[in-house]
Design goal:
alpha/beta, 41% helix, globular, binds pyridoxal-5'-phosphate
Length: 362
């Protein structure tokens, strides 16, 4: 039996997506390539029913971080000022991007275990000092689903534009794209959409794309968009990753789209959470604060992460450590990818085995 990936991307592929990798070699200056690119861009818009008149789907080659960096470095104008909401590694990464691109930016930082301070946000934005706010929708550090809709509502009251790292939520969680304050969302093909690493994208309001800055050559989102609108591409794309993403998006639609994908993730996440609770393993966050994509749990008493990881890997499951200092106390389980309820039952059985071995040893 092959190993199942329970880390937050790359995900376990379906056979349908895996087979799609083996398609003809393609030159990226030929019409077959542009058909592939067009279909992906159109299907990405369809995931959330976005209007192509106001939204551009900009596809790029790179990991999720490339999409986030393209969004931040292109969409904050040279006289803009960015407020970054930080409650985990990915929020901190956005601040570091701003620093390296010398974008005027400040952070509103709370601890990794804490929710975003919405009242504090309201007060900071009321000063009128910020043109943009950046927020991580699903903070994969802890599995927290940040209250994106509230952030966008607050930003809208001061005309502030919101840039979203949706890398681990696009295709799995709800977004309200209707509020004009929401300017862009960065995503990737190898998380909730079930493709392979190498294809990333930004869904951006066309108005925002025209009002940004030029800071990077490779990551200039406006350049990518202009070329793609004319059935072109500025650089050599990862065509196999695009083959996989196209098939993954077709599969996503065939399986019932966003609501079906969300329901499937939720059912698997709940199954794991309840099964672990029966085995005495507690989650870090209450369900109301959690994504359906990934959850963090406290390590069982007397079991190190290394022991848990190695035991589960021997049974065919790769889990994920807590990030940085959280590695001592937490582990994480993502339920994205081609996984079934039967797979999760086998995972829970593997936990039972380990916990029994622990109590016999004690
Ligand atoms: C996975 C992830 C990223 C990007 O990671 P890459 O390794 O660059 O693909 C960015 N933000 C969040 C919230 C993520 O979960």
């Amino acid at each position: 039996m092959s190993t199942l990936l329970l880390n937050p991307g790359p995900v376990t592929l379906s056979e349908r997506v895996r087979r799609a990798l083996l398609q003809p070699d393609l030159c990226h200056r030929e019409s077959e390539y542009f058909d592939l690119q067009d279909e992906i861009r159109e299907r990405l818009l369809q995931v959330y029913g976005l209007d192509p008149q106001s939204w551009a789907s900009v596809l790029l080659t790179g990991s999720g971080t490339a999409a986030v960096e393209a969004m931040i470095s292109t969409l904050v104008p040279s006289d803009g000022r960015l407020l970054v909401l930080e409650n985990g590694v990915y929020g901190e990464r956005i601040s570091e991007m701003a620093r390296r691109h010398t974008i005027a930016a400040e952070a509103m930082r709370v601890s990794w275990e804490a929710p975003i301070d919405l009242e504090g946000l309201r007060q900071r934005l009321a000063t009128g000092a910020y043109s943009h706010v950046a927020v991580v929708h699903h903070e994969t550090t802890t599995g927290r689903l940040n209250p994106l809709a509230r952030v966008v509502e607050i930003a809208a009251t001061t005309g502030t534009q919101v840039l979203v790292d949706g890398v681990s939520s696009f295709g799995g969680e709800a977004f309200d794209f209707s509020n004009p304050a929401l300017a862009a969302v960065a995503g990737t093909g190898n998380k909730c959409l079930h493709g392979i690493p190498g294809a990333a994208f930004v869904m951006a309001r066309r108005a925002a794309l025209g009002a940004g800055a030029q800071r990077s050559l490779y990551l200039d989102l406006a350049d990518w968009c202009r070329a793609q609108d004319q059935r072109g591409t500025p650089f050599t794309p990862s065509i196999p990753a695009y083959y996989a993403l196209r098939e993954a998006l077709r599969e996503f639609a065939d399986e019932g789209g966003l609501s079906a994908r969300h329901a499937r993730f939720a059912a698997l996440a709940e199954q794991v959470e309840q099964g672990l609770a029966q085995r005495g393993i507690r989650p870090l966050l209450p369900v109301c604060d959690s994504s359906v994509v990934l959850r963090a749990y406290y390590l069982p008493k007397g079991v190190s992460y290394a022991r848990l990881h190695d035991h589960l890997k021997a049974q065919g499951f790769v889990i994920y450590a807590g990030q940085a200092r959280l590695a001592q106390t937490l582990f994480r389980i993502s339920t994205m990818g081609a996984l079934s309820a039967a797979d999760m039952q086998r995972l829970l059985d593997a936990f039972s085995q380990l916990l029994q071995a622990r109590s016999t040893a004690a």
